[in-house]
Write a structure and sequence with these properties.
Helix content: 55-70%
Number of strands: 0
Largest sheet: none
Distance between the termini: 47 Å
Length: 154
């Protein structure tokens, strides 16, 4: 049971970290041209919009951020190893999933519609990539398929 709880909390924690990094660092601090996070809006989002969601470059920033994240959480390895491995696995999955989605836009649009929507419709909503859990909890998930104005009148 403890194993299950550690994995569950690791996934939830990693999802909140993903949300916060994307929303507050990349889209918040990244608005300033002098920020080290400016690449996200000025490069990744611009290329994705221009090329129909496609961005064929592997994100070096994600590959740099991954070891930093693991290092920052490494003290947990001794205390909560399952939690640490879950957070690390989530981070690896983030890099793999995010880069794959931007190579296969139709797949992204169908199965990861929240991330598609974030790039192609409203970059101020739907901050999650791997899972939209935190977006659901805090109310920032925008599902274009369920907008009230688009629902047929019955």
């Amino acid at each position: 049971m403890l194993l299950f709880i550690s994995i569950l909390f690791g996934i939830l924690y990693a999802n909140v970290v993903e949300y916060c990094i994307h929303r507050y660092l990349f889209h918040g601090l990244g608005r300033s041209g002098s920020s080290i996070f400016a690449f996200h809006l000025r490069v990744h989002h611009m290329i994705s919009r221009r090329d129909g969601f496609v961005d064929m470059r592997a994100s070096h920033n994600e590959l740099i951020g991954l070891p930093i994240l693991v290092l920052l959480h490494s003290p947990l390895l001794l205390i909560l190893p399952t939690f640490f491995y879950t957070v690390t696995a989530y981070a690896i999955m983030f890099v793999a999933i995010h880069n794959t989605l931007h190579h296969y836009p139709r797949f992204a649009q169908k199965y990861y519609w929240w991330h598609w929507n974030h790039h192609m419709q409203n970059q101020n909503k739907s901050w999650g990539v791997v899972l939209p859990l935190t977006d659901i909890v805090v109310g920032t998930l925008e599902d274009p398929r369920t907008k009230i104005k688009d629902r047929p009148i019955t």
